[in-house]
Amino acid sequence: MSTVGPMLRQWRERRRISQLDLAITAEISTRHLSFVETGRARPSQDMVLRLAEHLDVPLREQNRLLLAAGYAPAFRESALGEPELAVVRDAVRQVLAGHEPYPALVVDRCWNLVDANSGVALLTEGAAPDLLEPPVNVLRLALRPDGVAGRVLNPGEWRAELLGRLRRQVETTADPELAELLAEVRDYPSPPAETGNAHGSGIFVPLRLRHGDTELSFFSTIATFGAPLDVTVSELAIESFYPADAVTGEYLRRLASAGGRIGDGATTTATT
């Protein structure tokens, strides 16, 4: 018996969309949608994909819906090192290199480090060696006391920001691996009390980091690939850090000018 109906119903309820609203946006009858969800009607491949699109179901989960309905997956999942994704790798490295001397990194769906520029060495300096052994998980590296968290000057609000981001991902994707990661990292020891201005500019949550005797402040943006048709590509995220104040910008530019590049002078690929 096909299990796609209950799976679609779970996605609809997760998105807090009524049967009527989904039926209207997908241009089908409420009766037919009800029959699909209860297993009384077998949806076509096109219908599965149409409902999944309107429910904003990730590509990985769309493939699972198709398999549950008895169809082949519609989206391939390539290894990042495959020749077909050379254009993706090149684009990522152009973005990373072009962002120097400021830090930028790429993660997969489970926050495992895929690639990074030399500026990231400033963020990871002093972290426990085991946290830097591939595959590097960026959330563990960021939140463990012997990782980046030990140098963060606003650990409470930065931790809350990262956990909130991960929690929203779990709610959006229903990914069991992300749920396990959330359960792990939220049990890490609570950070010490905040020091200085704990709320930054009031526009965004900054990463306030100690580097030697200097306090640096960053904000970040996250970019993804538009209209992906490959599961791997759809799950890549590029996080780019920018100076949140003039002191940080000048400090990083001075370091880069003095040493050519921050870190080891090369863009590093963590996993392929």
UniProtKB/TrEMBL annotation:
Residues 8-62 form the HTH cro/C1-type domain. This is Helix-turn-helix transcriptional regulator. Pfam families: HTH_3 (PF01381), MLTR_LBD (PF17765). InterPro entries: Cro/C1-type_HTH, Lambda_DNA-bd_dom_sf, MLTR_LBD. It comes from Amycolatopsis acididurans. PROSITE patterns: HTH_CROC1.
